[in-house]
Amino acid sequence: SLRFRGAYGLGTARAGRSRSVARGRSPQNVAPAPGSAQRSYRRVIAQGLDPPASDLWLGVFGPNWHICGVLVTPALGGCFAQILDPSPHRDFTLPMNTLGSIVGCLGVAMLLGCSEPPPPVVAPRPEPQEAPDIPTYCANSKKPCVPPQDFVEQLCKGRYPSVGVYLFQKHTPFVRLHVNSRTVELKNDRGGPTSVPVIFSEELLLLRVNTLTPDKPKRPPEEIYEVLRWDGTCATLPKRDVVTYLPGLPQATPVEFNDLDTTMRTALLRDAKLAKLHASRDSACQSAANSDSCVQASKAQSEGIVAAVRQGLRLPMPRQRPTGDSANRATQAPSNAP
User: Fold this and answer.
1) What is the per-residue pLDDT for 118?
2) Which sign does the torsion angle of CA 197, 198, 204, 207 carry?
3) Spatial separation of the C-alpha atoms in residues 57 and 234, rounded to whole Å
C-alpha cells in the first residue's frame, strides 16, 4: 500500500514503525494506520505553525507564507523522504518514486515562485549644490587684507560682473589699489579672461601678492599683484605699476548693466538716480545700440553705478558667483569681520 510521506506524515509513519519493532514485528511489513498521516497533517495545519517556524516562513516567503507553507511543505517532504530516511528496508515502487520526483519538482518551483524579489536598489540623486557665499573678510590676520585664496583661484578663472561690483562695496575690508602707470601690460596668470586695457588711476582690488625670486643674486625679490577690476575680471600687475593712494581722478572699468544678474539689477534699480539713468539709456539705445547717444548713456549709467557703490550703496549676494569649496567658510567668518 502507498504511504503518505509529507513533512509531518513522515514523523507519524516512523513512530508507527518504531512501535512495531518494539513488539517484534518486521518493519517492512508494517504500514501505518489508515489515514493516520493525513489526520496528523490536517491537525498540524489546523493548529498552525509554531512561532519560531512562522517567523522563518515569514522571512523567506513574505506576506503569503500561509499559502506557500501549505503548498511547499508536503511537496518538499515527499521530495526528500528517501534522503532523510536511513532505513535500508524500502518498499517504494517505481510509480511512487516517479510521483515523488514530480511533487518535489513542483515544490521547488513553488518555493521559487512564492519568494518575493528583493526591492530594487535606487541610487540617491545628488542634490544640486548652491554656490557658496562670497567672503567679505580677510583670509588671515596678516597684512595686506585679501580674500581666501581658494576663492581667488575660482574667481580669476572666469568673469563674474556681479561679484566685481559686490566686492567693491564700501564696507568690504580688502585693500584698494590705483594704477600709477600709463603703459601697463594686461594679462591674467590664472588663465581667465581679460577685459579692456588698464587705464591710468583705475581703481583695483587686491586679491593676492606673489613674490618672485630674482634671476640675479643682487636683485631684490619682485612682487606681483593679482587684482580684481570693476567688471569682474582679474589682472596680474607688477607692484611698481600700482599705488595705494589716488594719483588722479578715480577711474573704473565700465560696468555693463545687462551683464549683471537679475538680483543685482533689481537692487540697483531701487535707487532713484540709477533708475533714471537706466531709463535714459533704454531710450537712447532703442533706435541703435552703436549710436553716440547710446554710448554716452551707457557710460553715464556705468559711472552712476560705480559712484553709488562707492558712496555706500548696499547690495545683495549675487546669484552668479564662483562655485566650489572657496567660500564655504563665509558663514564662519572671524568675529572682527564686517
Assistant:
1) 65
2) positive
3) 70
Q: From residue 83, give the alpha-carbon distance in Å to each of 13, 22, 90, 110, 274.
A: 15, 24, 12, 20, 95
How buried is 230 (Cβ within 10 angstroms: 0-12 exposed, 13-18 middle, 19+ buried)?
Answer: buried
Which range scores top for mean pLDDT: 9-13, 35-39, 192-196, 329-333? 192-196
CA dihedral for 304, 302, 176, 132, sign (positive or negative)? positive
pLDDT (average), residues 252-270: 95
Bond prior to 334 in cis (omega within 30° of 0): no
**Per-residue pLDDT at 66:** 52
Rounded Cα distance between 196 and 72, Å, is 83
Please give the grid coordinates belonging to residue 195: 577685459
Give me the percent of the chain exceeding a pLDDT of 70.
Answer: 57
Length of the chain counted residue by residue: 338
Q: Quick one: pLDDT at residue 81?
A: 52
> Which position has the grid cell 504511504?
3
